Each structure stands twice: as structure tokens, then as C-alpha cells.
Amino acid sequence: MASAVGLAVGLVVASWPAPANGAPFDLVWSAPAGCPSREVIVAATQASLGESPSEASPELFVQGAVRAVGGGFVVKLGLKDASGRALGEREVRVGPPSCEAIEEPVSLVLAMMIAVARPRLEERGDSAERAETPPPSTPAPASVRGPSSTPAPPPSTPAPAARPSAEPLPHRLVVGAAGVGSLGVLPNVGRGFAIRAMYSPRSIVLVGLEASFEACGSVRVESGEVGFQLFAASARVGVAALRTARFELIPTAGVRAGASRSIPTGFSVVKDETRASLLAGTGALARVELAPHIFAEILPELEVALIRDRLQIRHGAKLYSVHRASLFGARVSLGLGYEFH
């Protein structure tokens, strides 16, 4: 594709003779981490046009936005003149392995768009100049003009239109399910599952909700045993600190509220209890793309217990204290997520 586009650029540039530097252009560039920078794209485009950098005010404005789609990338290019009039749009699709591969095809397509737009820009400039030039007129007699006559002010030049803003980030919703393991809240290692949803409202900030269930092995008390279960719901917020075509790292912080329940067995007369727990924690959600829209997710977290009621059981007239959550705990979840755009 790059060679075909390069040939097209050469033909277009050769078709319209121009000075060493034609109408200068400016680029507004939006791209994920790991992609070529704005400066790299501008330099590569000028090289394709056979030009050097110009200090003149730009007459063409380009808006470029890169987004990852499937295993590759789509680059959307839009070209406008100084008045804000659209001159054309193009999309460039580049396959894997990395975003760096977009530099050559994007710079070639952009050079072709600029080469095609320049003659149209010059034609409009010549037409405007002819319209603004008044026809020659016969001078008025001196007695009519008089020495105190004030010449009319020159016509004002319209101010260049503002640059087009960068393309906003898309809405993102990720729904997933994961296996969970924890230490500290239950007497032994807790095992269970969680259902999680994370939403990003056109920004790098994500908010999420989660529901989970965990259980652990029994604890021996006198002649019986006591098992434990934990039902919890959590809310968290995160920031997409690192994002590439296939990997994303999101530091998170959240609060988890739950109810711990004791399940005694082997007692003749017993009363089980349900106690509240409240935990706050921080972690980092790592997401790796396995297929389009499907991600493997791992979320390790460290938690501190804000409320940790003691679980007790009563056997006849005797009261047994069987467990109280640790002040600090750890938790990890591993599962799959699906991303909706």
C-alpha cells in the first residue's frame, strides 16, 4: 500500500508546478502511546512533498486521530483551509504489529491530500484578489476632492479560523467475570467469583461496580466446625495510566462493603451470626487483548479494614469468639472482560 500511495503522491506533486514551499500546513494530532508523534508525521510529510519547514502562517489545517481497531490501527485525516472549509477526508488502515508502522502510509496520504488541495487554494486566492481589486476610475476634479478629503480605509483581512479540536475519546464499557482469592477478611484463604463493570465517559477516568462471593475452609471450635462466607459489593475509580494497542494499565482505588456469615456444624444447639465489614483498597487493573473486544484481566489489591466486627457463635449458654477480620488484607481477581464502544 505504501509504495502505491508513494507513486500517487509523486504524480500529484509533479502535476502542479509550485515553488519550493507551497501553502504551509499545520497538524493537530491525537494518538495512543507508542504511535509516531506530531513532529515525526509533519517531518515525514514535508519530506514526501520535497519541502523544508516554513515559518509562514499555516493556510491548511489537518486533524489526525489514531485509534486501535482489532489488531491494527485506523488513522482518520481531515483537511480544512484557514476559513474552516472542509477540503477532504481520508482513512488509513494499518495492520499489526505496532503503531509505529503508520508513519509512512499516513505521511504519504497526507502529502497527497495537501498536494491536491494547494491548487484549489491558489485558485480561490486569485479569484478573491480579482474581486477585491477595484476597476480604474477617472480622478475627480480638485474642487470636488479638496485637500481635506480622507482616503477610504483598506479592506480588512478576515482572521484565520480556529484550529479544529482533537477528536474526543470514545465511550467505553467493559463487563467481565473473574475468579477471586483473598487473605485477611476470612479466617483462611477465601475463594470465590466476582462480576465487574467499568465505564469510561469519553476520558481516561473509569468508574466501576463489582459484586462478589467468597467462602473459606472450616475452623474447628470445641466439638464442631464453623465455615464462613462473605457477600460483598464494591465501587472503584481508576485512571488509564498506560495504553497501547494490546495492553492497558489502570491504577484503581475503591471501597468494598460486605457481610460475613458463620455456618456452624456439629453443635446440638447453636446460633450463627452475620457481621458487617467495610474495606478500602488500592490496586492496578492490567488488561491484555486476546481478540477484538476480548481481554484477559488481573486486578491485585491491598485493603485496610475500616469496620471489622467479631464473629461469634453461642452453644447453649457458652459464647465462642471464632473470627475477626485482619486490619490489612490482600485480594486478587483473574478473569475475562468484553469491551463495548
Assembly context of the chains = single chain
- The total beta strand count reads 16
Give the percentage of residues in beta strands: over 45%
The secondary-structure element order is HEHEEEHHEEEEEEEEEEEE
Number of domains: 2
Level-1 CATH class name of the largest domain: Mainly Beta
**Overall SS class:** alpha+beta
Strand line-up in the sheet with most strands: 5-6-7-8-10-12-13-16
In the CATH hierarchy, the third-tier topology of the largest domain is known as Porin
Tell me what you see in this structure.
With 341 residues, the protein is α+β, with helices and mostly antiparallel strands. The chain folds into two domains: 2-126, Ribosome hibernation promotion factor-like (Double Stranded RNA Binding Domain), CATH 3.30.160.100; 172-340, Porin, CATH 2.40.160.20. It contains four helices and 16 strands. It has helices at residues 2-15, 38-49, 103-132, 142-145, and strands spanning 25-30, 60-69, 72-81, 86-94, 172-183, 190-200, 205-221, 224-239, 242-243, 247-265, 270-271, 274-291, 294-308, 310-315, 318-324, 328-340. The strands form three sheets. The protein has an eight-stranded antiparallel barrel. Helix 1 packs parallel to helix 3 (103-132) and helix 2 (38-49) packs across helix 3 (103-132). The longest helix has 30 residues, at 103-132. The chain is rod-shaped. Residues 11-19 and 140-149 have low confidence and may be disordered.
